[in-house]
Design goal:
By secondary structure, this protein is an alpha/beta fold. The chain has one domain: TIM Barrel. Helix content is 42%, strand content 16%. The chain has nine helices and eight strands. The chain has a six-stranded parallel β-sheet. A two-stranded parallel sheet has the order 1-8. Strand 6, helix 7 and strand 7 form a beta-alpha-beta unit. The longest helix has 21 residues. The protein is globular and about 45 Å long. The relative contact order is 0.15. The mean pLDDT is 96. Bound molecules: pyridoxal-5'-phosphate (PLP). Pyridoxal-5'-phosphate binds next to strand 8 and helix 9.
Length: 231
């Protein structure tokens, strides 16, 4: 656990260096520590080192940690990855961001619940840029239509796109995933859908975040490089 602060320092420095190498301002890239499977104590350590938002991929865990850590001011929770409709209530109630929207049914369910709770949710649309059948997310050619279908769901603040790149040592294939997401962002921006901004590109994990930054990532989701290997 003592390593967490040191790992954060290293990751932050590497993010800054990747920004400089890409000719980008380091303030354009946000680090999202992914605390999934880690105990609340690990989140406290990262919080003490300045982190305020954490990523979780299981709604039950997100809700449990939100309750356990409710004493920490300004703490926010980000649901990352596919959300099953029967867990939408947990996300509507406890998350501040959702990187992984890929279903209109889930979108409508979240909208109804958020309306009732009187709170908004920042959402990023998940795209399957690798074509791997094991991955969630919309097919790239379905994204423009999906974005248009989200119009009118006003509690969902559409902020951008999210992807998980191909799981391969082939850097060119990983880079192609990131480039595809950035290209979809440009297409969405040029369409100018009312009320949707598309400023955010959530892409890059422990093994590929520098490459993602080179391709325009604004959020990198990092677990093992901060918290160590998951047991
Ligand atoms: C686990 C996870 C991450 C972080 O992965 P690491 O390789 O541990 O950095 C990022 N994004 C999603 C969607 C995840 O599920």
């Amino acid at each position: 656990m003592d390593d967490i602060a040191a790992n954060l320092t290293t990751v932050r420095a590497r993010i800054a260096a990747a920004c400089v190498a890409a000719g980008r301002d380091p303030s354009e890239v946000r680090l999202l520590p992914v605390s999934k499977t880690r105990p609340a104590a690990a989140v406290r350590t990262a919080y003490a080192a300045g982190c305020r938002r954490f990523g979780e991929n299981r709604p039950q865990d997100l809700a449990a940690k939100a309750a356990e850590l409710a004493d920490l001011p300004g703490l926010g929770w980000v649901m990352i990855g596919h959300l099953q409709r029967n867990k939408a209530a947990l996300i509507a109630a406890h998350a501040t961001e959702f990187h992984g929207l890929d279903s209109l049914d889930v979108a409508r369910d979240l909208e109804r619940r958020l309306e009732r709770l009187g709170r908004p949710l920042d959402v990023l649309i998940q795209v399957n840029t690798s074509g791997e059948t094991t991955k969630s997310g919309l097919a790239p050619d379905a994204v423009l239509r999906f974005a248009a279908d989200l119009q009118g769901l006003d509690a969902l603040r559409v902020r951008g796109l999210m992807t998980i790149a191909a799981n391969t040592p082939d850097r060119a294939r990983v880079a192609a995933c990131f480039a595809l997401l950035a290209d979809l962002q440009s297409q969405l921006r040029s369409r100018g859908i009312d009320g949707q901004r598309y400023d955010e590109l959530s892409m890059g994990m422990s093994g590929d975040y520098e490459l993602a930054i080179a391709h325009g990532a604004t959020v990198v989701r990092i677990g093992t490089a901060i918290f160590g290997a998951r047991g």
